[in-house]
Specification:
Its EC number is 3.4.23.-. The structure is a single chain. The chain has two helices and 18 strands. Strands 1, 2, 3, 4 and 5 form a five-stranded antiparallel β-sheet that branches. The chain has two domains: 82 residues, Roll (SH3 type barrels), CATH 2.30.30; 117 residues, Cathepsin D, subunit A, domain 1 (Beta Barrel), CATH 2.40.70. The chain is mostly beta strands. The relative contact order is 0.16.
Amino acid sequence: MRSFYVVVFSFLLALGAQAQQVQLKGLFGDSALLEVDGRQRILKAGQKSPEGITLLEATTRYARVSIEGREQKLTLEAPIAASFAQAARAEVRLAADSRGHYMTDAWVNGLRVPMMVDTGATSIAFNYPTARRLGLNLNTAEEIRVSTANGITRAYRLNLNSVTIGGIKLHNVDATVHADDFPSVVLLGNSFLSRVDMEQQQGVLLLRARH
């Protein structure tokens, strides 16, 4: 039996005057499972969906699709390029967990890291072990003191080249690295959130890229 890979990356595609939401749901053999505006389509390489999406190639690691001559490579290891959608803004939808928190996967230095949305955090906040895993350079970072629930502690302020969540990619994002194991999960703070549009809809948090 061929392995089935589930992916959660989605992106917006502009078709004429109407933007479609396309999501890669899985890869198996030379076929890909796509979801187009809620409709699931299983395509083999070379086939076109009723919505006009052509699957050019599918492997166990990625799928290449084409719409009206424009190509996009959907990988299992990297986020979708927002530049593919020209007429529509990239959008990320986050459902609240059982505690009411919004969790998402972000990409920093080419590595995936879980983050929790925290509108009370000034910047993206990492603990020290996570910063080391991501290869963040603290040698040139500014040493600061921050106030946490555990009291005043040492931290480092630095600038991230880019942070990518779904189809939203921002450059030059401020971050803070704490010198201990706090916070237990990376906090997605306002150095990122203030640069996107946010909206809550029935327990779902929408993040939209700005033009």
